[in-house]
Design brief:
It is built from five helices and four strands, in the order ααβαβαβαβ. The chain is of the alpha+beta class. About 20% of the residues have low confidence.
Length: about 170
Amino acid sequence: MRTMIIAASLAAVALAGCAKKQPIATTPPPAEQGAGTGSGANNDEVGLVELPASQQALVAAAGTDTIYFNTDQSDIDDQDRTVLTAQAKWLLANPNVRASIEGHADERGTREYNQALGERRANAAKNFLLTQGVPEARLLVISWGKERPVASGSNEAAWAQNRRAVTVVVR
């Protein structure tokens, strides 16, 4: 009996020594440092990490990361084309970055309508960037609808600032 207990104990120790090791936890590399621009949106909810230093470089090259729309519209006008053309040149010169094109709407309208309108605006900007040669695999589209306004207030000035598409440089 004593021999069986010793043998069982040795077997248990041998099995414990063969147990699978737990993987070592890794820490993701820190994001680029710098002040954010544009929407200031945090994309943690959608798994994107913004690159503030690259965002600043995009804004410096293109003049802005944001284009604006008229009420209930998603058309790209001549001023938007100029901005998006400059953004496309910067994106083509920086092939290691991706961009999230984020569409927004003002507070008027239903949630569903504003989600769809934000998506149309983001897709309009994305499609223009595609015509400029930016690879589709580097462009994402997100619609925030009316959920992330940059201007508070229920007046035309605030609504005009919230009807936008923002190009956000992401990892």
